[in-house]
Write a structure and sequence with these properties.
Elements: H1 2-16, H2 26-29, E1 30-34, E2 39-42, E3 47-52, E4 58-62, E5 65-76, E6 85-92, E7 100-106, E8 115-121, E9 130-133, E10 143-149, E11 153-158, E12 161-167, E13 183-190, E14 210-225, E15 228-229, H3 252-264, H4 277-280, E16 281-285, E17 290-293, E18 298-303, E19 309-313, E20 316-327, E21 336-343, E22 346-352, E23 361-367, E24 376-378, E25 389-395, E26 399-404, E27 407-413, E28 429-436, E29 456-471, E30 476-477, H5 500-512, E31 514-517
């Protein structure tokens, strides 16, 4: 098997040397758009170099726009310690509802492989990422990266090996880039807040300037000018008088190569159920105390006497279902608080640590328009430190449901008709953190954090958001008015309520495991309970 892989690689690499049959000239086809001299056309237009230093990166774009075509570029990437840098080759239109087809090459520390990040946007919506490691060193020689884009599919190729096919599935309601002409863009820029190991490894500016080199640009596409396509006549008007890309699809050999690659080089194809922390979350505090692991499938937070740590979702949401699997701090966790919540407004899961052998307290709360005081607290019916368990928030316009391993523990209904505020107008991000709260968290603050046990660690995995993404720029939701475009295209949460089985489970939890209910605290609310307390808990 290994020998057959080596044979395949050697055959392909020999072929890749002649893959670009008719290379264009950068002087004719492109213009440098930014970088103040950091982008340089070389060798009479046969090559182009981009550089990055602490002040700026650089980039160029094609002079023409295209609607479909084949786009080849040979690139040699930043060598050695390229951590924090991103080298790009992509197609894009402009505007909020733009289309985009991406090759992004994420640098790494010396000796570690580049990550090839691919994505497809249509009408401003992406979240179609696949990532790969390469089977060669892309910094020592030029290799050919190709995008084939036609009405039926998009094919990403490396040295003529197809690594990804994105088919047109408009028939099942998935948007496809087919109406907006796009230019070719390339750039080299700093993205050390996310690019390498989720932002944990920063750009080493002592290595600057960083340089990537492009050559053998080849564009065989339909040029669009003044709204008209050069291919409209279906004759021989495209750039190279030959258009096999217009019906390009994988033959048996190509399908075998994609299968081979999926075994050998695919590193981050997001699972159907879970999002990826590299792609969907940003570490917000704690320095190195927050670590993304296992290719983005797990995120560990730690707490010591100096600081805790935390992360947040990259997107904001207005309604959705949010799942997270957590394994809480084991042993003596007194004084610590592990969280999973959405804000502002705010919908809270907080897990209050305890002394060894004593149970965690699960603290829930709901804030709207800055007002909370809706606390309910529970014990769990299992040890949440020995294995992962799933904690979920379902938030729609009628109710909020808190679930543990899909068992409802609390329902907070919309009682605006009674004058009770409900979170429905403010988009929220998902947040998670591990921090010290020994002034109140454990037995009212009587038990303090034992720092001799530090660092404390909690682990998160299988972060899943099936929700309506909110755009602050346009004040619009991805769900619009259709209720058909939540992130994972499953809208059951939008009308979710408890059935008979769910109501029975809720009764069981609240009878056996609820330890505090704001609706029963007469000492605290001596002037009377909030109006919803008189209504059904379901």
């Amino acid at each position: 098997m290994a020998n057959s892989h080596l044979l395949l690689i050697s055959i392909v690499l020999m072929g890749s040397l002649v893959a670009v049959l008719a290379a264009g000239n950068f002087n004719d086809l492109t213009e440098i758009t930014w970088g103040d001299g950091r982008g340089k056309i070389l060798d009479g237009g046969k090559g182009l170099s981009l550089s990055l230093d602490k002040l700026s990166g650089s980039g160029f774009q094609s002079k023409n726009e295209y609607l479909y075509g084949r786009f080849d570029m040979q690139i040699k990437f930043v060598p050695k310690n390229s951590a924090g840098t991103v080298t790009t080759f992509f197609l894009s239109s402009q505007g909020e509802g733009h289309d985009e087809i991406d090759f992004e090459f994420l640098g790494n520390v010396t000796g570690e492989p580049y990550t090839v990040h691919t994505n497809v946007y249509s009408q401003g919506k992406g979240n179609k990422e696949q990532q790969f490691h390469l089977w060669f060193d892309p910094t020592t020689a030029f290799h050919t990266y190709t995008i084939v884009w036609n009405a039926n599919r998009i094919v990403f190729l490396v040295d003529e090996i197809p690594i990804r096919v994105y088919n047109n599935h408009e028939s099942i309601g998935i948007a496809y880039p087919k109406s907006q002409p796009m230019k070719v863009y390339c750039s080299l820029w700093n993205a050390d807040e996310w690019a390498t190991q989720g932002g944990r490894v920063k750009t080493n500016w002592t290595q600057a300037p960083f340089t990537a080199t492009y050559r053998n640009i080849n564009i065989d596409g339909c040029v669009v000018k003044s709204g008209a396509s050069s291919c409209a006549s279906r004759s021989t008007d495209s750039a190279n008088n030959a258009k096999p890309w217009e019906t390009h699809e994988l033959d048996a050999k190509g399908r075998n190569r994609v299968r081979w690659l999926s075994v050998l080089a695919l590193v981050l194809l997001s699972p159907v159920w879970a999002d990826n922390f590299y792609q969907d979350a940003t570490v917000t505090f704690g320095d190195q105390r927050a670590q993304i692991q296992d290719g983005g499938r797990l995120l560990a937070l730690s707490l010591d006497k100096i600081s805790g740590s935390g992360f947040q979702s990259k997107n904001e949401y207005l309604f959705g279902r949010f799942d997270m699997q957590l394994k809480l701090v084991p042993g003596n966790s007194a004084g610590t608080v592990t969280t999973f919540y959405a804000r502002h407004d705010e919908i809270d899961f907080e897990f209050l640590g305890n002394s060894s052998g004593q149970p965690y307290t699960v603290h829930t709360n709901v804030y709207s328009q800055g007002k909370g005081n809706k606390e309910q607290q529970f014990r769990l019916w299992f040890d949440p430190t020995s294995s992962f368990h799933t904690y979920s928030i379902v938030w729609n316009s009628q109710r909020i449901i808190f679930l543990v391993d899909n068992i409802p523990i609390r329902v907070f209904n919309n009682h605006e008709a009674l004058g009770v505020a409900f979170p429905k107008n403010q988009a929220m991000r998902v947040y998670a953190s591990l921090w010290n709260a020994d002034d109140w968290a454990t037995q009212g603050g009587r038990v303090k954090t034992d720092w001799s046990m530090a660092p404390f660690t909690a682990s998160y995995r299988n972060f899943n958001t099936n929700a309506c993404v909110w755009s602050a720029a346009t004040s619009t939701s991805s769900c619009g008015g259709s209720k058909t475009e939540s992130v994972n295209n499953d809208q059951t949460w939008q009308t979710q309520q408890l059935n008979a089985n769910g109501r029975n489970r809720l009764r069981w939890v609240q009878q056996k495991y609820m330890i505090y209910n704001y609706c029963a605290d007469a000492n605290r609310f001596s002037q009377g309970f909030s109006p919803e307390c008189k209504r059904s808990r379901f």
